[in-house]
Amino acid sequence: MIPAVTAAQMREVDRATIQDVGVPGVVLMENAGRSCVETIFERFPERLRQGVAVLCGKGNNGGDGFVIARHLTNYGVDLRVYLFGKVKDIKGDARINLDAARAMGIKITEVLDARSLRTVNVNAGLIVDAIFGTGLERPLGGHFSKAVDKVNRSGAAVLAVDMPSGLQSDSGRAGGTCVDADVTVTFGLPKIGQLIEPGRSLCGSLIVADISIPNDVVERTKIDTALLEQDDLLHMFQPRRADTHKGTYGRVAVFGSSPGLTGAAAMAGMAAVRTGAGLVRCAVPDELNTIFEIKMTEVMSEPLPGTDGALGQSALDRALSLADEQDVLLLGPGLGSSKQAGEFARIFSLEADKPLVIDADGLNAWAGKAEALAGRRAQTILLPHPGEAARLLGVDIKRVQSERLASARTLAELTESIVVLKGAATVIAAPDGFAAINQTGNPGMASGGTGDVLAGMVLGMWAQHPDAFETACAAAYLHGMAGDRALARTGERGLAASDLLEELPGCLRDMEAAARGEPQGEAD
Q1: In whole angstroms, what is the distance from residue 360 CA to residue 102 CA?
Q2: Is 364 helix (H, G, I), strand (E, B) or coil?
Q3: Could you tell me which of 213, 232, 225 has the C-alpha nearest to residue 172?
Q4: Pairing of strands 2-3, 225-227
Q5: Cα(461)–Cα(278) distance, rounded to whole angstroms?
Q6: pLDDT given at position 133
Q7: Which residue ranges form the domains of the chain, and what is each CATH number?
Q8: Residues 199-206: what's their mean pLDDT?
């Protein structure tokens, strides 16, 4: 996994590189600026013909901008450079590059207030945003805010240097106005705010540039967040041995369903099949069993005593006996919100001593009581969407969405569980505080049933791989991967949960091919 850092962690990495290793800061700045120039020529060759406006701040981010201006001038690009500050106030490495730019004949126009902002001409093919970097912690105001509005209205392509101005690098929030970049070139390591919405969208395409930060400096720095990538998961997709059988790949069961919600458990069961589980059962209220017998072929149904079509305490003895025969359990899809279903969920969760995935109404049963899940005798994976996470934590959904990483970590610690906080840029958090951020998936997946598919995927994959955190990461990545492939076929609005089930075999085939070092997207 690629470490993802806060602004403070990145400052420590920079400090250690400069002071402990001895790489001069001006060298890092030069490398940063050159990496931006390479991206400009790769992504915006046509835009260069219309000129470039480089907007620089007073700090090192502005210094990167001066480097960019120098190199573009050497290539004969027509450009204008604006400094949001006074030339006399520029210090350190940024000053070295400002002086070099001026020595090359590059004019630096000072922008000090709303009046001088009128001199900023953004009628260009490309705007380079080098005003603020990763250290911004407050909303933009005054002429800075107006400058950003001017950039966003310009119609020019925008390349952000390290971080779009106005975006908070730790949270991904933009308290006020923020540059809406087409491409962001960030240096050394991705920043957490670039991976979480709305920061992820405001960054546009994110490019992580190597500026010669030593690997051992990164390894010595305490970093507890990572960007999830395909290569991190390939060890889970090695070829199956020839002498295996269905029992080798796990016995799993889905406990749930109630009137009107049979599709949830059915899709979860089928997702477990599609991800390779050996034997899959859906344990459902006996009144609904015939529906499952008709609906499902590869998944076995198991009727449990029901109460008005839902699972209640009368189903517990049989449910716990069945649970003893399984390797991994899933509780919640379609369970319903009745009082008896909630009682069933709470007692079953604590008395079943097998690895347990909890989703949907299985989670809602624990609203206000989530800390009791820490008492389970086996590992637990929770799959809340933001509303469910809010109920479990006793906060409002707005807080969860604005603090997704912190919310996932808090819930994981509270329940001693792996938490998969669903949504744009799904967060997978462990009780020890480590968290991974997934980048696959798309808005077309915001429809009923996609969460049930994810739950079944976690169930099926956990039966084959013992590590709960890795299983949760792999399922989240594959879930989004299937959604992205379905998107190409259906478009956003027409994408349905069942489309993910259709795409899963191809996704798994390609992961297996990648694990063997073979081309993806081709059948053997």
Answers
A1: 61
A2: helix
A3: 225
A4: antiparallel
A5: 10
A6: 87
A7: 2-224 (3.40.50.10260), 231-515 (3.40.1190.20)
A8: 97
